[in-house]
Fold these 2 entries.
Entry 1:
Amino acid sequence: MTSQALDEIKIGGLGSSRKRVEDDRFIRGRGNYTDDIVLPGMLHMEILRSPLPHARIKSIDASKAWEIPGVHLVLTGEMMATRNLAWMPTLSYDTQAVLATDKVRFQGQEVACVIADDPYIAKDACEAIEVDYEPLPVIVNPWQATADGAPVIRDDKVNQADNVVYNWEVGDRAGTDRAFEQADVISKLELHYPRSHPSPIECCGSIADFNRATSKLTVYMTTQAPHIIRAAVAMVAELPEQMIRIISPDIGGGFGNKVPVYPGYVCSILASILLERPVKWIEDKTGNLISTGFARDIYLKGEMALRRDGKILGVRMHTDADHGAFFSDAQPSKFKIGLMHSAFAAYDIPAAHLTARGLYTNKAPGGVAYRCSFRVTEAMFFQERMVQAAADDLGMDQAAFRRMNFVRDDDFPHRTPFGFLTDSGQYAKCLDVGLKAIDYENFREEQAAARQRGRLLGLGISTMTEPLGAGNSREYDILGIKMFDSAELKVHMTGKAILRTGAKTQGQGHETTWAQIVAHELGIPADDVVVEEGDTDTAPFGMGTYASRSTPVAGAAVAMVSRKIRAKARKLAAHLLEVSEEDVEWELGRFYVRSSPGRGVTIQECAMAAYSNMPDGMEPGLENTAYYDPPNLTWPFAVYIVTVEVDPETGVWDVLKMVAVDDCGVRINPMIVEGQIMGGLTEAYAMSSMQFITFDADGNCVGSNYMDYLLPTAWETPGYELHSEVVTPCPHHPIGAKGIGECAAVGGPAAFVNAVIDALTGTGVRNIDMPVLPDRVWEAITYRRDVSGAPPVRQDE
Ligand code: CDP
């Protein structure tokens, strides 16, 4: 039989590097972002923020603001309190002030809002509001938070006598103790992953439009999770959920920053309800950097129990996480420190134990998973820094130490020391590809020779395996809502289709790749499938896009709904071909009669029949919905290797070469996957070399603008060599795909830092905290000591 199946690459199916359909509007400047939307009668809102990090509010006098022509409303905490809206619940079972009533608890906290004819009047009116603050002692790190006599930041909470948010532990304490008793060598390292910020180019914003005549509230907003926002608005504002429509238009980058609910959203909604006019709030860059979800800010004390021959016997980790003034992490509810315990999943380690403590400080709340699955970035950074230090302590080769301890290919599914079940991987093969690409042996020789001449070359390896696709409903929920996702597919009578999912793209290219999954499953060309996301009135319920969960969960739902459509189309085909369903075979784009392969009907003919010639008793139409509750997380793996040269005179370091070997299972669109990896590596480079938000001893945020918070441009960004030759399909995902969006940002930072530390071999320097700034490197070389990145404390302490 000669197959008449379609050429999958030609129709834009799996494996096709189809050009991104959304770029057509983006590169022409025709995207439709929240700030592009203008509604008739629209007013503008600005927020007054606290200049102080910790102060009691003695009084707020807004009378002068009310007098300014063009001002329609001034909202204060007191007014919010009369509507029970001064505080709101967070995604981590804490509360967060919407507008401050009693105290301000971080610099930049929302104190009042003005709604006016234009944003300039609103801004001027904010400045006319007089707030009388009584300054309080400031806490900017965990040590101050736990010091004797430390002021209690959350004195609003009953039974909160200190600044501890939680104490949490996971793993096998007794087994780990035994491993340490048997160890030949114990390797120790203390690290800080500094506070960083996702800093999307588009800041947060919303336009609330309450229509009194219909009682319908429509909110256009920058959210990565529109359905969760709808549920939150319904519950917090006690509005009927069916009367709330959240629309996420185009989003200019999210990276986790656009998951939480922010006070600005709540205030614009209340203002629109009170004024019965649309109210737009668009945050400025400083507002975004100082008040919205930060990431990381976590300290590690790590220890590894090692056998002399290199076998890792056990790992102990303790983390102190600085959560800022409100515990508002967006993460699965069961896990207090996110998925930090995914650390060491790629290594075969008999026992591990993690204790985690969360602390309130006078900093903005957040703890968002910045391009990361709930603290996995920190986990992988700590893991790979500890692995390098352990190999050094044993005097072993970095690569050999890793290879010896990797989970072997035939050991899957593998139970990790903290209890996850990893699905598949070829870790040693990825490492081999990376070592070959970097020319490992030759580089080591070159490095030794260069050292003789006073040149400092270094090589850093980092590996990562990331739990992507949160998650199965047995273990993963946010505020009790299970973390499944959805897809709805409607095939029109001409064979063209519209697909909607509960995910929400922010630049990742879902409009392109979801259509490719439909093409793969049904043979409908990807160009014939339009993809829509982000409107809660039209899209099926989903938990949104973050933590690289879209492909593992929503992408799987797209495959499953396509299969439901195919099952119905098969019945239609049997009817058209006048044979029984059992006699019908499928090849891409076409059903045919098994005994007579030349006799067949295309998927498009089946679609037409669904509206014009269905068999008796069949429900007309060709559409369906699938909700996908993943059986497990997907576990991509990567090896990143970087070589650097450090200038011993200045501490400046330059990347010589970087190779990335990513195994994310089946690649839907190889070009998009490469784009995701390059973007992630660039963010990793930024975090390791230049980027952090810090605070001075008085709690002032340093890093509140792009002069201080650095984003690498094309000028600074190094080149990357990407390798795709290792493909381990995910055994439980319908098309074998694993997530990729975050992998390089997760695994990349340790490669850069390890390379700089490797260049300093022989100086006794074991650690320089990120960002590895030239002055820190210079200090390490000059004084032969580790350089900590912990924020300063006051001189008088
Ligand atoms: O959740 P998010 O979209 O941020 O991350 P993702 O699911 O890892 O996907 C990022 C982009 O890469 C999407 O356009 C995916 O469809 C695409 N992708 C792919 O083409 N092949 C994979 N195996 C994984 C993702």
Entry 2:
Amino acid sequence: MRIDVVTIFPGYLDALDLSLVGKARRDGLLDLRVHDLRDWTTDRHRTVDDTPFGGGAGMVMRPDVWGRALDDVLGRTGGGDPAGRQVLLVPTPSGERLTQRTVEDLATVDQLVLACGRYEGIDARVAEHYADAGVEVREFSLGDYVLNGGEVAALVVVEAVARLLPGVVGNPQSLVEESHGAAGLLEYPVYTKPPAWAGREVPEILLSGHHGNIARWRRDLALERTAERRPDMVGTLDPADLDRRDRAVLARHGWFVPAGGAAPVRVVVRPGRPEDAAGLADLAAATFPLACPPHMAEEDVAAFVAAHLGPEHFAAYLAEEERYRVLVAEGPAGPVGYTLLVLPLTAQESPYAEDVAALVVARPAAELSKCYVLPEFQGSGVAGALLDATTTQAAAHLVEDEPVATVWLGTNRANRRAQRRYARHGFVTLGTRRFRVGESLEEDVVMAVTLADVPQTTPPPAPAG
Ligand code: JD8
């Protein structure tokens, strides 16, 4: 590959004589040429800039000087049409953000030409002229901060591209696992001797010699770091690359992978707000029928929804905070799940149904009346996050100075999936109850969790107001 850098400060690129890039140049793996723009000036002061048309501070670099320089370097002087793919790169704070994807593409090019501006920048006609002349022109930025010129950006591009060229990096395998690499994750932390330093030990697992566990630990740390430090990267991960464990790690950081091949999305569990009533009623109408066994008549399901899950009902659940607590799992496009917790108003209040009161003996007892997520989020971990937040909220609730001791629920005997989910969150089956849905008298499994046994997650923030 050939890389040409044109600048008024050629010495700025001397660092590229060092290290891997320097060796790659000496080994003939990279043909890097640095040019002084002033070599294409025509006046005895070797002028490269002039005052800006339209006024304003500073100076602008002249197009005619740049034109002569770039024609030469691109081999277009005398109208030549050089072979191979050429890219003219113009560093500028107003350019597209440089990424590893861009660098990987640039590493396949035959000739890169970097035009390093100074002062207020290069006359805008230069980039337009070469683009119109059929040259691939890319104006790029390193990031949202202002430098004094393009030389630093040229150093970055040359190093980032050169290390991807065959033979430059000793062990190509190391290119695979790094940040922003194919996995699209940040790197896991690395350690070396001494095993103890400044009172800090190397993570035990790295000394275990168990390569499988070490690989899994490193993947977990890479996922966690990416979710914590670069949430913008999580939404671009390919779900096909995310196994069950990956998804569990991301779920712990609020990222969930919907069914159907979509990328991970941020879902936040928060207290319901009065303005959620209509959206929650729509969500409830869409999800309650899915938990009903096929034998249940549609009209019975509809009757139940109309009687308990209308916007007016949710308005009440959201307003009566002493009795009800609503948690909402909010995705990018609105609620994707919710729970409805019914709190006891007195410490010894019994569940309203006798057959349940006979099974659920611990007090104070709260009822997890509703726990639903949209189908595309079933199995994604959203329901689990809602459940953890709900039991944490219940455990933090005092009734006559007594913390709620247990949360019970009823779920249709046929809904095995729900029963498995509740069991994974500490709920045990106590028995059954009769439950009316419209005209249909159903049999529910009654399950309950003893809150003292459940590790409490970070409680969701207290209800607004
Ligand atoms: C090229 C001239 C200086 C910029 C007036 C300060 C890239 N991420 C980045 N930040 N800054 C640059 C950059 C700055 C440059 C030039 C790149 C040429 N300047 C100018 C406009 C405001 N001075 C950059 N890549």
